[in-house]
Write a structure and sequence with these properties.
Layout lengths: L4 E5 L6 H14 L6 E4 L5 H7 L4 E3 L18 H6 L4 E4 L2 H6 L4 H13 L3 E6 L3 H5 L3 H12 L12 E4 L13 H19 L1 H6 L1 E5 L4 H8 L6 E4 L6 H10 L2
The chain binds 2-phosphoglycolic acid.
The site of 2-phosphoglycolic acid has 13 residues, from strand 8.
Length: 248
Amino acid sequence: MRNKVVIGNWKMNTNLEEAYNLVADISKLKERETISIILPPLAYIKTLQNIACPNLKIGAQNLSEYSKGAYTGEISAQMLQSIGVKYVCIGHSERRTLFNECNNTIQQKMQQAINNKLKPILCCGESLDLRKENKHLDFIKNQILSALQNIDTEDFSNIIIAYEPIWAIGTGETATATQAQEVHAFIRNLLAENFGENIAENMTILYGGSVKPSNASALFAEKDIDGALVGGASLKAEDFVQIINANN
Ligand code: PGA
């Protein structure tokens, strides 16, 4: 059985008070058994760890590709590990496009995470142009195979993959459940071909891009969609908890 997961990516939103209240509200509303993860701004991680209910994990939105040294403004995998963070998002399209992170950088970040016992949430996904040209599957294949290079077989169980078509992020435009399932099945086949059936079958693959309470159930009903990476809707406690509850 694959783990079903819902992750909230707050991006650069909330002040400390709002963040505190949001985690307190989610903790109150959420059923305790289901695992969910919040990726708040880095500055609030320690505070939020102290108030989150069990099974609401607090992760990080980013980490450095370097291990330590003169890299002003960066945060290392070891630092995250030392404050009790387990999950870290890597390769989000906003990092790739706005901060010029290339496949090589993503690969180095994956290594940093794995070497420091963090669980990477590896994001992939195509632009609208690539989809229109029908080049999206090749593009995603490249992103994934590059990021997973040099990862040992036993470390795959610590990885979550998130498919997030760029044209659906923050736009209100969701991929249809069928469109998303098609890519998720493609990713699972790709994993089977390159790393074996077992790794493919056990990999949690999330969908991201304008997921909300009204479309979550249809997405989660697809056989290769194991949950969601949620941006905008994760900033409203009730919406986020409804999405979590839809993922049974
Ligand atoms: P969205 O963002 O749900 O606001 O589209 C998803 C994401 O960027 O992870």
